[in-house]
Write a structure and sequence with these properties.
By secondary structure, this protein is α+β, with helices and mostly antiparallel strands. The chain is built from two helices and eight strands; from the N terminus they run E-E-H-H-E-E-E-E-E-E. The structure holds calcium ion (CA) (2 copies).
């Protein structure tokens, strides 16, 4: 029996996400899939969601939680801004967000202590 390779989870903070192994979305198709999957489970207005990208080690150099570099990105036009207009903290974790004035499913860096839903990608399981 093969289970779905994607598993939505309860809302968690970007800090917890940093301890997991997440390396996606890595394409526009995955970007749409992940965001729409989470939002199919969350009622109300479209929810912002964490992805496993951050710039903790060097400001402006984003990497996945396993330390690998990213080839794909879909930043909102004014992002990443490291919270230049926010007080009092920097923004080192990346989310897919919903804003009426932003491109649908575009990315924003945000404060890692905030709580948003996220999705973990795991290997398929086989039960004998
Ligand atoms: Ca930053
Ligand atoms: Ca930002």
């Amino acid at each position: 029996m093969v289970h779905t390779p994607f598993s939505p989870t309860v809302p968690q903070s970007g800090q917890l996400l940093q301890r997991s192994r997440v390396r996606f979305p890595s394409s526009w198709e995955e970007n749409v899939f992940v965001y729409d999957l989470v939002n199919s489970c969350v009622p109300g207005i479209p929810a912002d969601i964490w992805i496993g990208l951050h710039d903790h080690r060097q400001e402006g150099q984003f990497e996945w939680t396993d330390g690998s570099s990213h080839d794909y990105s879909y930043w909102d036009g004014s992002q990443p801004d490291d919270g230049v207009y926010a007080e009092p903290e920097e923004e080192d974790c990346v989310q897919i967000w919903y804003r009426p004035t932003s491109a649908p499913r575009s990315w924003n860096d945000n404060s890692c202590g905030r709580k948003f839903p996220f999705v973990c990608k795991i290997a398929s399981l086989t039960i004998h």
